[in-house]
Design goal:
Length: about 150
């Protein structure tokens, strides 16, 4: 197994602990798979580091509940910032355990934390992937809820 495959498998194993389920599968596994699929469609030549960042950007997100932060824009932004830091730290641990060097780990952390988002195609690419993936997912979720009414 390659280092990339080992890291992606470890991310999926961590996300499999998500208590939220959709059709019996962990919500964050489904989200990570959609992100990887969108990245492959938009950037078929994406680097391994971008693949890791895309897969890990919601890594164990349920561990930081939105309800722990105040309502409103500031509370939401504080929650998102805390999530990005958390996801990057978890990705760091997984990558380190699978032999990635410090520079690669730092780069993935910067991608996940969305640092310098307007400065490079790799960082912008991760955001574009998320932006194209999320609306489709939200539409499907809302459609399912409407069909149940």
């Amino acid at each position: 197994m390659s280092a990339l495959d080992a890291v992606l498998a470890a991310i999926d194993a961590a996300n499999a602990e998500d208590p939220r389920r959709v059709d019996g599968r962990a919500f964050e596994i489904l989200y990570a798979e959609r992100m990887s699929a969108r990245l492959a469609a938009i950037y078929p030549d994406a680097s391994d580091l971008l693949k890791i960042a895309a897969r890990a950007q919601h890594l164990k997100r349920w561990e930081i509940p939105r309800a722990d932060y105040p309502e409103g824009r500031k509370g939401y932004n504080d929650w998102r910032r805390a999530c990005r830091i958390h996801h990057a730290a978890l990705a760091d641990e997984i990558m380190r355990a699978n032999g990635y060097d410090a520079a690669s780990i730092a780069h993935v952390g910067a991608l996940i934390r969305k640092e310098q988002i307007k400065k490079g195609p790799r960082i912008a690419g991760a955001g574009e992937c998320r932006g194209r993936c999320l609306p489709g997912a939200l539409f499907r979720r809302v459609s399912r809820k409407i069909r149940r009414l």
